[in-house]
C-alpha cells in the first residue's frame, strides 16, 4: 500500500497523482517498472548465490502490519493484514523457489515475483515438506538491516514451527549483507541516477541560485534542498542535509541560523534515495570576497592534497580482498607519506607540520551507510567481508591541515563520493568532487 521509498507516503502520493499531468504520471509508471525490474533481478540473480554461499537452505522473512522487515521493500512489498512471510527455498535447481504467505495487494500483484501464494496457516506443513537443514532468519549482531525479526515475531515463528523445525533456525546476517550489497545492472543504473540527483541538487544549493552572502543561512540552504527532493519525488538518506562552515571562523550550528558570509568555506553532507538506491556524498564551496576570483591558495592546496589521498584509497580497492585489508593497506600508505599521519575524527594533533588523515570508506547504496563490505573501523564485522564486483562503496576521507591565511588552527577538508567495485578495481557511478565550488 505504499509507493516504494520515493520519499512519499501513501497519502501524499495519492494527492500528487490526483493532480498529476500525463508527463508526471508517466514518470511514476516508469519508476514503478524500474523498481519491479530491480526486484526481479535481485531475486533471480543475487539471491541464489547469497543463499548458497552462506549454506542457507531456506530463508524466512517475517513482517507484521505496521512493522515491515527492512528487506520487505526489496522482496516485493505488499500488504500484510496480520503476519506475513516471504519464504525462499533452495531446492537444488537453478533458481530459488519463492513463496508468499499472507501477503497481497494490487502493487504486489502487478509485479509478480512469487511462485506460490499461501495462507500463513500453511507455513509449518510447507516447511516440513521441503525439510531444510538450515533456516535463515533475520537476527543479527551488528547489521541492522539483517535484524528485522522482532522478539514477538520470533516467538510466533518458533511456536508455529514446533521444536523440531525451530531448532534449525540460524541467523541470516551474512546472507542479508550479501543480498543487499551485491547489485545487478538495473540496481547500478538506479544508483547512478541517484548520484546524479545528489550532485546536481547539491551543486545548485552551493551557488548563487540559493545563497546570497550576508543574508542566506545554512539552514535555509538545507531546506531548499529538502524542497527539491519533495518536488522531484525523492527520499533522502539521513534527514536534513548537514550544512556547516569549515573556516575561517567557528563552524556554527549545523543547518542552523548561521548567516553565510563572504570568505566562508562551506561543506555539505547528504544523500538521496531513488527507488532502492541511497547515496552519501559531500560538496564544498568558497564564498568569494570582493576582488577575489578563487579560494585562498592554502585552501586550494589542502583540497588538492585531499584528492591525492582519495587516489590512494582507489588504488588499494580490488575484488577478492577483505574490506579491512584494503583499509589497512591505504592506512599504511598514509602513515609512510611525509607530512601525513593517521588521525582521529575531529580531534587533530596540535603539531602544525603534520596533517591528520581519517578514512572511513563505508558500504553504501542499500542505505546511506550500507550493509556490505566496509572500509571503516566503525563497521568492524563488515570489515571482515570480502569486496566483490557489484559492491557499492562511499569513498570518504577527512584531512585536517593548517591554512596559512587563516592562522595555525587546522581546518577539516572532507571528501566523499560513491561508486562500484568492478573486476578492474573501483569505478565512479557519478562524477566525483574535483573542485571547490565558488559563490560570489
UniProtKB/TrEMBL annotation:
One of its GO terms (molecular function) is aminopeptidase activity. This is Aminopeptidase P family protein. Pfam families: Peptidase_M24 (PF00557). Keywords: Aminopeptidase, Hydrolase, Protease, Signal. InterPro entries: Creatinase/aminopeptidase-like, Pept_M24, Peptidase_M24B. Gene3D superfamilies: Creatinase/methionine aminopeptidase superfamily (3.90.230.10). Residues 192-422 form the Peptidase M24 domain. Residues 1-25 form the signal peptide.
Amino acid at each position: 500500500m505504499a509507493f516504494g521509498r520515493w520519499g512519499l507516503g501513501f497519502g501524499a502520493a495519492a494527492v500528487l497523482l490526483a493532480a498529476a499531468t500525463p508527463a508526471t504520471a508517466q514518470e511514476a509508471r516508469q519508476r514503478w517498472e524500474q523498481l519491479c525490474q530491480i526486484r526481479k533481478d535481485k531475486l533471480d540473480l543475487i539471491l541464489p548465490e547469497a543463499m548458497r554461499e552462506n549454506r542457507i537452505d531456506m530463508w524466512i522473512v517475517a513482517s507484521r502490519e505496521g512493522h515491515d522487515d527492512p528487506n520487505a521493500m526489496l522482496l516485493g512489498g505488499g500488504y500484510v493484514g496480520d503476519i506475513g512471510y516471504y519464504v525462499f527455498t533452495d531446492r537444488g535447481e537453478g533458481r530459488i523457489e519463492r513463496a508468499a504467505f499472507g501477503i497481497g495487494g494490487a502493487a504486489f500483484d502487478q509485479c509478480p515475483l512469487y511462485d506460490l501464494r499461501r495462507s500463513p496457516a500453511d507455513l509449518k506443513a510447507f516447511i516440513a515438506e521441503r525439510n531444510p537443514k538450515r533456516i535463515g532468519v533475520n537476527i543479527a549482531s551488528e547489521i541492522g538491516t539483517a535484524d528485522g525479526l522482532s522478539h514477538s515475531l520470533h516467538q510466533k515463528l518458533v511456536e508455529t514451527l514446533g521444536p523440531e523445525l525451530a531448532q534449525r533456525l540460524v541467523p541470516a546476517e551474512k546472507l542479508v549483507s550479501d543480498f543487499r550489497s551485491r547489485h545487478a545492472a538495473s540496481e547500478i543504473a538506479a544508483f547512478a541516477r541517484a548520484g546524479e540527483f545528489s550532485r546536481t541538487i547539491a551543486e545548485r544549493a552551493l551557488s548563487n541560485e540559493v545563497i546570497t552572502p550576508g543574508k542566506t543561512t545554512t539552514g535555509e540552504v538545507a531546506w531548499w534542498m529538502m524542497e527539491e527532493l519533495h518536488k522531484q519525488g525523492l527520499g533522502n538518506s539521513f534527514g536534513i542535509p548537514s550544512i556547516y562552515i569549515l573556516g575561517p571562523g567557528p563552524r556554527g550550528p549545523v543547518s542552523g541560523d548561521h548567516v553565510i558570509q563572504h570568505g566562508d568555506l562551506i561543506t555539505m553532507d547528504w544523500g538521496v534515495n531513488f527507488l532502492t538506491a541511497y547515496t552519501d556524498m559531500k560538496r564544498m564551496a568558497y564564498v568569494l570576497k570582493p576582488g577575489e576570483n578563487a579560494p585562498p591558495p592554502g585552501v586550494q592546496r589542502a583540497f588538492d592534497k585531499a584528492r591525492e589521498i582519495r587516489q590512494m584509497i582507489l588504488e588499494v580497492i580490488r575484488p577478492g580482498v577483505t574490506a579491512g585489508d584494503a583499509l589497512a593497506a591505504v592506512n599504511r600508505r598514509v602513515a609512510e607519506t611525509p607530512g601525513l599521519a593517521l588521525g582521529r575524527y575531529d580531534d587533530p594533533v596540535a603539531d602544525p607540520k603534520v596533517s591528520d588523515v581519517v578514512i572511513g570508506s563505508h558500504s553504501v547504496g542499500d542505505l546511506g551507510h550500507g550493509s556490505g563490505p566496509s572500509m571503516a573501523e566503525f563497521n568492524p564485522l563488515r570489515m571482515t567481508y570480502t569486496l566483490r564486483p557489484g559492491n557499492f562503496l562511499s569513498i570518504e576521507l577527512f584531512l585536517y591541515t593548517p591554512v596559512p591565511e587563516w592562522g595555525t588552527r587546522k581546518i577539516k577538508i572532507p571528501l566523499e563520493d560513491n561508486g562500484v567495485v568492478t573486476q578492474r578495481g573501483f569505478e565512479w557511478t557519478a562524477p566525483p568532487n574535483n573542485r571547490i565550488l565558488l559563490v560570489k
